[in-house]
Amino acid sequence: RTESQGKTFTESQAFSQSEIVRLLQGDDDDWLFAAAARVNRQAFNRQVYLRGIVEFSNFCRNNCHYCGLRAANRKVERYRLTSEQILSAVALIAESGMGTVVLQSGDDFTYKADIIARLIRQIKSRYQLAVTLSLGDRHHDELALWREAGADRYLLKMETFDRELFAASRSGTASRPDANSRTGADYDERLARLKRIQQLGYQTGSGVITDLPGMTDEILARDLLTLTWMQLDMLACGPFVAHQQTPLHQSPNGDVLKSHRVSAILRLMNPDANIPATSSLDAIQPGARLQGLTRGCNVVMPSFTPQQVYASYNIYPGKNSASDTLQARLSALKQQISHLGLVASNARGDALRNPYVP
Ligand code: SAM
Ligand code: SF4
Fold first, then answer.
1. Is residue 64 lining ligand 2, measured as CB closer than 6 Å?
2. C-alpha–C-alpha distance, residues 332 and 322, integer Å
3. How many Cβ atoms are within 10 Å of 231's Cβ, its own excluded?
4. Which of 57, 97, 153, 271 could form a disulfide with 203 if both were Cys (CB 3.0 to 4.6 A apart)?
């Protein structure tokens, strides 16, 4: 471990692209998973950070080919929570003692910048909570306003850093249908937005969808190198899950083991980053999300989305499908974490990394 600006950093391991490809192909799983678990222990001392997530709108103006919330999907029952409903869900997160609230939605511009800013201020004035936003492709000035209002973190997954695969997977927005023909334009905008988020001083997260149709191990390896090069604070990678009401409905689901390898490799290259075990793991193989906590992940994000709309945040099949109450889900999760010999932690769990200034 080394010291920098008063913080302690765990030594990271560098891999070449071909070494990553070999690890992705299962060349040395025993070593990889054991090493990732060891580095996890060094960096987080067996703690697993719990973040309460409120999925407050499933309206989206975009048409990502993989996502069940895409604008063209007329079969989703759409909902929007009011500020009061969002604050009630946040109150439950605060009462449960968790240190972070994550606000997530489709790219829903009905929530104007000042509505979100007021929400952030209300949360920050009432509770000692870190606020993470995951609201998609919002304007640079909106991102600046929310940072000023007190938001701590922003999660914007590139899904892949491969320009062609990105263009093939995320066609233009509903409000800008012409973007479809401007191959790569959205790519540059999203990447610029990600860099802007870092410059604004957010703890910044990005990530990829593993086994996104068209992704090869070479692309994935390059993605992991780029994520590492960007010195991100949060690295969110989960497997592709095919949704019936999307153009990719016939593509196979992602491989859970491959996604675990990705988290483990990222852990070794980014020892101090926060790496969530995503719910898409469980959607493919129940229990795989927990297993991820023993293979490099250190964060889980239980949903506090109100029960009456919970199941409608159906990004992919199996997402928000549990019929248990929120309290029952939460206590089961905590028990499962402790059965793994880990500790469910309510700490804010801020990233320990040096901010990257591009
Ligand atoms: N609209 C915002 C955005 O796209 O950044 C945030 C909400 S979006 C539903 C959150 C994440 O869901 C995306 O970043 C994507 O990685 C993930 N996602 C969507 N569809 C998926 C699928 N079929 N399989 C796996 N992950 C998926
Ligand atoms: Fe919208 Fe996000 Fe789904 Fe794309 S991934 S359709 S931006 S909710």
1. yes
2. 12
3. 17
4. 153
CATH number of 16-345: 3.20.20.70
Task: Tell me the residue length of the chain.
Answer: 358
* Positive/negative CA dihedral, 315, 287, 301, 256: negative
What does the block give as tokens for 266? Answer: 């990222």
Beta carbons within 8 Å of 3's beta carbon, 6+ residues apart: 9
User: Could you say which ligand is closest to the alpha carbon of residue 63?
Assistant: 2
Measuring from atom 2 of ligand 2, which residue has the nearest CA? 106
Summarize pLDDT for 10-25 with one digit per residue, the tens: 678 899 999 999 999 9
Domain boundaries of the chain, sorted by first residue: 16-345
Instruction: Render pLDDT for 324-353 as a digit per residue (tens, 0 to 9).
Output: 899 999 999 999 999 999 999 999 999 866
| AA letter at 46 | R
Task: With CA atoms as reference, report the closest residue to 269 among 17, 4, 25, 47.
Answer: 17
Beta-bridge mates of residue 265: none
